[in-house]
Amino acid sequence: MAADPTYPLYPFVAFVGCVLALVPLPWHLQSWNSGTCYYMIWTSLACLNQFVNSVVWSSNALNIAPVWCDISTRITIGASVGIPAASLCINRRLYDIARMQAVAMTRAEKQRAILVDTLICVVFPIVCMALAYIVQGHRFNIFEVIGCYPAIYNTVPTYFLVYMWPVVVGLISAVYCVLSLRLLIARHAQFREFISSGSGLTSSRYFRLMALATTDMLFTIPFGIYELYSNAASGEIQPWLGWANTHFGFSRVDQYPALVWMYQPSIAVPLQLSRWIIPACAFIFFTFFGFAEEARKRYAALYASICNRLYALRIMRMGDKHERSARIPSASGDSLPPYSPKSASTSGFDSLASITAVSEGSSSASTETFDMKDAYGHEKC
């Protein structure tokens, strides 16, 4: 029996969030919206990670998949920075558009923008994963219900190497967001005319991106500050005594049953918030982009394509069925045997056809004889 009384609610929510976050990905790829694409990818990957953990460790805290836990803890650290970093890229892009400088871009400019977004959304989270290893006290922790979780040593450098980055990225993103809103208010009329001349971005999509970035900012900064506070208040901050001291007994894996941590609010609240906020990001994103006009058009096109394929498949199956029935002979006893003509015989009558042929020959001969005589029986000259 699962220790979480709401099980399997969270695995279901996490899996649905993983799928929904990727639904708008194709048309954002076509529009070269790299920041939005990275947001979807990080959110979906984080939801998938949480889904696997919540299923495998729903009722135990055993170290049954150590390699997966090594990967999972890196995904957790990367997503905690990657999602806010993607929001930062979205706000940068919106700010450039609000300045009326970057709606329609050349191919080289698009490639340069994608390169910058990749450095922020991919390279920077990877660097944060590497920095977290410096203050990683042991291999990982396993919490029943939660699954694999990073084992970060509560020391002073931890706050600068790991915990501060979501708050810093969120604050930078907030600056871009405020500047964009300020420009929009000052140049509202010119903005609508300017954005209508661009390609791949409508005013509706712009404001939805703005709403997404603002909502994400409102989540990231308060949650990041709360994480800083909860980690500082949950236990005494240890002094940094060097690499060897921090990594002593590094292969250890700490395991916590649900009865140990679920009834300690200082541990349970941050853990539950850190896992529920991930599918919340996925559902918020789908709310802004999954029901838009462009999304509905693509859903209708996909539905029509599926219906056409099913109809074509049905027609092909019906044709094959008729072809097979035409090739297979009837199995009933009323059918006639196949006819094969026999060779002519010189004696006797072999069939009804031969009797008919002989009788027809005799009839014609007698008719010819009758025609050679007149009505009185005399032969004609």
Automatic annotation (TrEMBL):
<dbReference type="InterPro" id="IPR001499">
    <property type="entry name" value="GPCR_STE3"/>
</dbReference>
<keyword id="KW-0297">G-protein coupled receptor</keyword>
<feature type="transmembrane region" description="Helical">
    <location>
        <begin position="163"/>
        <end position="185"/>
    </location>
</feature>
<dbReference type="InterPro" id="IPR000481">
    <property type="entry name" value="GPCR_Pheromne_B_alpha_rcpt"/>
</dbReference>
<keyword id="KW-0675">Receptor</keyword>
<feature type="region of interest" description="Disordered">
    <location>
        <begin position="326"/>
        <end position="347"/>
    </location>
</feature>
<dbReference type="GO" id="GO:0000750">
    <property type="term" value="P:pheromone-dependent signal transduction involved in conjugation with cellular fusion"/>
</dbReference>
<keyword id="KW-0472">Membrane</keyword>
<keyword id="KW-0807">Transducer</keyword>
<feature type="transmembrane region" description="Helical">
    <location>
        <begin position="273"/>
        <end position="292"/>
    </location>
</feature>
<feature type="transmembrane region" description="Helical">
    <location>
        <begin position="206"/>
        <end position="226"/>
    </location>
</feature>
<feature type="transmembrane region" description="Helical">
    <location>
        <begin position="71"/>
        <end position="91"/>
    </location>
</feature>
<keyword id="KW-0589">Pheromone response</keyword>
<dbReference type="GO" id="GO:0005886">
    <property type="term" value="C:plasma membrane"/>
</dbReference>
<feature type="transmembrane region" description="Helical">
    <location>
        <begin position="112"/>
        <end position="135"/>
    </location>
</feature>
<protein>
    <recommendedName>
        <fullName>Mating-type-like pheromone receptor</fullName>
    </recommendedName>
</protein>
<keyword id="KW-0812">Transmembrane</keyword>
<keyword id="KW-1133">Transmembrane helix</keyword>
<dbReference type="GO" id="GO:0004934">
    <property type="term" value="F:mating-type alpha-factor pheromone receptor activity"/>
</dbReference>
<dbReference type="Pfam" id="PF02076">
    <property type="entry name" value="STE3"/>
</dbReference>
<feature type="transmembrane region" description="Helical">
    <location>
        <begin position="6"/>
        <end position="25"/>
    </location>
</feature>
<comment type="similarity">
    <text>Belongs to the G-protein coupled receptor 4 family.</text>
</comment>
